[in-house]
Design brief:
Strand content: 5-15%
Distance between the termini: 37 Å
Order of helices and strands: EHHEEHH
Helix content: 55-70%
Radius of gyration: 16 Å
CATH topology of one domain: Multidrug-efflux Transporter Regulator, Chain: A, Domain 2
Largest sheet: 3 strands, antiparallel
Structural class: mainly alpha
CATH class of one domain: Mainly Alpha
Amino acid sequence: MSLSTESFDARGLSGLGADRGLYPISVVTELTGIEPHTLRGYERAGLLTPIRTGGGSRRYSDNDLARLRRIATLSGDRVNLEGIRQILLLEQEVTALKAEIARLRGPAEG
């Protein structure tokens, strides 16, 4: 199984909330085809921040999986890690600005 847009809905794969850390690194590796050392490298580079259990194990959320899909696409386009980090930050800014514009316009124009 690989990551695809069709695999996700607003609630995530689990239906329990897109931010909930559910998947251990072994499952994420199976779902994405991304090796554990690469996932840990993305974390060290600040591209991904999985939730940690009390014992220190990583747990990835549906949002993390979607972010990994985007990282993999950019990496496949030969963007380096710093470039990916900058692109992700800018995409977050654009999303926040669009939400602010929608809020300011109000429901009448929305």
